[in-house]
Amino acid sequence: MGWEHVSTGDVxxxxxxAGTELGRKAQAFMDSGELVPDSVILDLVRDHLxxxxxEAGILLDGFPRTTAQAExxxxxxxxxxxxxxxxxxxxxxxxxxVKRLAGRRSCPECGAVFNVHFTPSSVEGKCDRCEGKLVxxxxxxxxxVRRRLVVYGEQTEPLIEWYRRSGARVxxxxxxxxxxxxxxxxxxxxxx
Length: 192
What we know:
The chain has helices spanning 8-18, 21-31, 38-50, 67-79, 94-102, 142-156, 158-166, 179-190; strands spanning 4-7, 58-61, 86-91, 104-106, 113-115, 169-174. By secondary structure, it is of the alpha/beta class. The chain folds into two domains: 1-84, Rossmann fold, CATH 3.40.50; 89-192, P-loop containing nucleotide triphosphate hydrolases (Rossmann fold).
C-alpha cells in the first residue's frame, strides 16, 4: 500500500544495531532484564517518524500497548502533524493465539519465519531460505504466550475503548479466519 510500517520492535533493534544514543539507552535496560521505558520507545518512534514523508500513510504495528503509551503517542504524532484515525483490532481465541505463537520458528541468519502447524519448513528445524537453524524465541513459548494474553487483557485491551472515545475508527477483524480472508478484511479496514 506504500505505507510506512512501523514496528517498535524493528525500530528498537535497528537503533541498537546502528548504535544510536537511543539504541544504547534501550540496550542498557534490555541487558538488565527490564522493559524499555515508554519515554525511550516514544523517542525512538518520534525519531523514526521524522523521516517519513508527510504524504505517506503510517501503520503502527504492536504499538501502543498501554494507555500511557497511547497518550504519549498523541503528543509525538502532534509534533509531526499526524493523528491516529483508525485502529484495527485482530481478534482470535486464546487457544488459536497460543497455537500460532508457540508454533512460530524463525531463522536468526536471514529472518525467515515458519510455523510448525501452518507453514512448516521443508526440513524440520532448518530454514528453507538459507539452511540456518530455526529457533523458537523465548517469548513464543506457550506458557509465556499465556502470560502475555493476561497482560494484554489488563493493559492493552482497554485501549480499544480509549481510542473509540478519542474519535478513532475502531475496526475489528476476525483473525481466526483463513489468511486470505484476514488479509482482505485488513485491507478493507485501512482503505482511505
